[in-house]
Each structure stands twice: as structure tokens, then as C-alpha cells.
Design goal:
This protein is α/β, with parallel strands linked by helices. Helix content is 40%, strand content 11%. It is built from 9 helices and 5 strands; from the N terminus they run αβααβαβααββααα. The longest helix is centred in the middle third of the chain and has 18 residues. Bound molecules: iron/sulfur cluster. Iron/sulfur cluster binds next to helix 4. The site of iron/sulfur cluster has 13 residues, from helix 4.
Length: 217
């Protein structure tokens, strides 16, 4: 199967999925969307009200802000793949639970493998924890690092900046770094400081990351 076929298959499976209790609170599953050859992939937390209604990621207020942020980074939504760590809406927009994250993880892994993006941007602490389980987002947001050979850039979730307007300038600054990171990955990823970390499944992300993780650009 080519990348597009794999993404289509994942999307079809997600819409029928009964692997966790979030199937009971979904109106529409939200597998994610974007080109199969996207150079950048954005991974958020989970669908909210409007996403659940439409079956599309980031279509509410946070989505509008994400569109603005993409534009500031010289990107268009049609160029990037956008999805979440859980594909069905947690009731009342509560945090996803560990067993839900674990149940849904295989779909995200297959999407990442199929797209094989140059850069993965995590939006919020739950997607960051997939790659950097011990990191604290307030310490490492906007910085790039290689984790198991992939460039990961942790960012605040756009909704966090809407709830806490003082974060907005920082979120904008972080997004403006993306073209530089993308160019760096295309040019020669050997020049990027590397921190190799074994992938962990723990969702514990309350501790400070080891210092090596902070050796960035
Ligand atoms: S959140 Fe993921 S694992 Fe749970 S029912 Fe939806 S698609 Fe399946």
C-alpha cells in the first residue's frame, strides 16, 4: 500500500473503532487530514465539540488560530497533515485517559509511518508526552530535537493561548521557527544536535526533562 492508501485505511478503521470507551462519546471520529506527502505533521490532543460535529480536526476557535499561526510560518493548512493523539472526543473535553491514549496510539503510529514527515509538531502536553514523556512543555516549547531519528518540535496547544492570552506572543514566536527547522531537516539533518531517546509509552510528563534534551539549535 502507498502512503495515501494507508491513511485512508486508518481513517476507515478509526470511524468503526471500538477499542476504547471514547467510542460512546463520539458523533464523528476525527482521523486527521492532509496530504500523504506532508513535510510537517501537527499532532494535537483530541477532537472538541466542533471537530466531533464535523469529523475534521481543528475546526473550532483553536483551529482558526492554528490557521493564523500556519500562515505566519509561511504554511497553508492544505500543505500539512493535522491530527490528534485520540481520534474520538473525550466527553466534556476532559483530558484523554492513559488507556485511551494507549488504545489509539497504533493509529497515530501508522499515520506517522505512512507520511514520514520531516518535522512533527506536537500541540500540547499529551502529544508531546508520546515522544518526550518526561518533558515539561513550559521548559522546551518551540525547541527542536531529534527523537529516535525524527525531528520533534513541542508547542503549546493553540487553545492554551486562547485561554491564556499572555501565551499568545510566545506561541507565535515558536511557530515562526518552523521554516528554519524544516529547511534544516531538508539540508542536512546530521547538523542537528541529537538526543536519542527510546520511545516510552508512559504518559507521565510531570518531571523536568534531562538536560541533554535541551541541547537544541
Ligand atoms: S479514541 Fe481511538 S481507540 Fe478510542 S474508540 Fe476512538 S479511534 Fe478507537
Amino acid at each position: 500500500m502507498n502512503a495515501k492508501e494507508i491513511l485512508d485505511e486508518v481513517a476507515a478503521q478509526v470511524t468503526q473503532c471500538e477499542k476504547c470507551q471514547l467510542r460512546f462519546s463520539r458523533k464523528n471520529a476525527v482521523p486527521g487530514e492532509g496530504p500523504a506527502n506532508s513535510e510537517i505533521m501537527f499532532i494535537g490532543e483530541g477532537p472538541g465539540f466542533y471537530e466531533n460535529e464535523q469529523g475534521r480536526p481543528f475546526v473550532g476557535q483553536a483551529g482558526k488560530f492554528l490557521d493564523e499561526l500556519l500562515e505566519m510560518a509561511g504554511l497553508k493548512r492544505e500543505q500539512v497533515f493535522i491530527c490528534n493523539v485520540v481520534k474520538c472526543r473525550p466527553p466534556g473535553n476532559r483530558d484523554p485517559e492513559p488507556q485511551e491514549l494507549q488504545a489509539c496510539n497504533g493509529y497515530l503510529d501508522r499515520q506517522i509511518e505512512a507520511i514520514n514527515p520531516h518535522v512533527i509538531v506536537t500541540l500540547g502536553r499529551f502529544s508531546m508526552a508520546k515522544f518526550l514523556p518526561q518533558a515539561r512543555i513550559s521548559s522546551i516549547h518551540g525547541n527542536a530535537m531529534l527523537v529516535n531519528g525524527r525531528m520533534i518540535v513541542p508547542m503549546f496547544h493553540p487553545a492554551a493561548a486562547l485561554h491564556q492570552p499572555s501565551l499568545k506572543p510566545q506561541v507565535i514566536e515558536d511557530f515562526k521557527k518552523l521554516p528554519e527547522y524544516l529547511a534544516q531537516m531538508k539540508k542536512d539533518q546530521k547538523e542537528i544536535p541529537v538526543f536519542e531517546q527510546k520511545e516510552e509509552t508512559s504518559s507521565d510528563h510531570n518531571d523536568e526533562p534531562p538536560a541533554e534534551q535541551l541541547s537544541l539549535f
